Amino acid sequence: MAFRDLRTGKNKKALPNNDDVKNIIKKAKNHEFYNSYREQSLRIHPWICAKCNKEFSVNNLHLLTIHHKDGDHNNNPPDGRNWEHLCVYCHDNEHKRMLDGEQSKIFDTESHKGDSGLTHNPFAALKNITSK
Ligand SMILES: [Zn+2]
Ligand SMILES: [Zn+2]
Questions:
Q1: Residues 49/86, Cβ–Cβ less than 8 Å
Q2: Predicted pLDDT at 12
């Protein structure tokens, strides 16, 4: 139907100003793009969380998210090598873990050695300092 409008040229009169059009197109493209990489990833990877191995179906697929392995949401090679399927919980943990990794370099203390690094509060060391 959009093509018919283009052929008649009538859409030109109905269009709002150029900036509005640019914004609309930009939004539409972003939306389209988001959907396309998610769909593409769902097509080529199994519907299983890469961390906890939970399996997903069409009924709970909205809980399966696409994680970018290198953290760059603009890096979307069509072969899917930068995508990983994670359930919302593992995805959350994955990003917290990445954050903790950075924080623990700053706040590393003796007491943290030996733990898995998964549960410690990166601000615990800071709290000790400020409460003295
Ligand atoms: Zn999971
Ligand atoms: Zn992610």
A1: yes
A2: 55
pLDDT at site 48: 98
- Rounded to whole angstroms, how far apart are CA atoms 51 and 43? 19
Q: What band does 7 get if pLDDT is binned at 50, 70 and 90?
A: low
pTM: 0.53
Ligand with minimal distance to 73 CA: 2
Cα separation, 15 vs 21, in Å, equals 7
User: What distance in angstroms lies between residue 54's CA and the mean position of ligand 1's atoms?
Assistant: 6
Rounded to the nearest angstrom, the gap between the alpha carbon of residue 14 and the centroid of all alpha carbons in its chain is 37
Distance 131 CA to ligand 2 centre (A): 35
Rounded distance from Cα 94 to ligand 1 centre (Å): 10
For residues 97 and 86, give the distance between their C-alpha atoms in angstroms, rounded to a whole number: 14
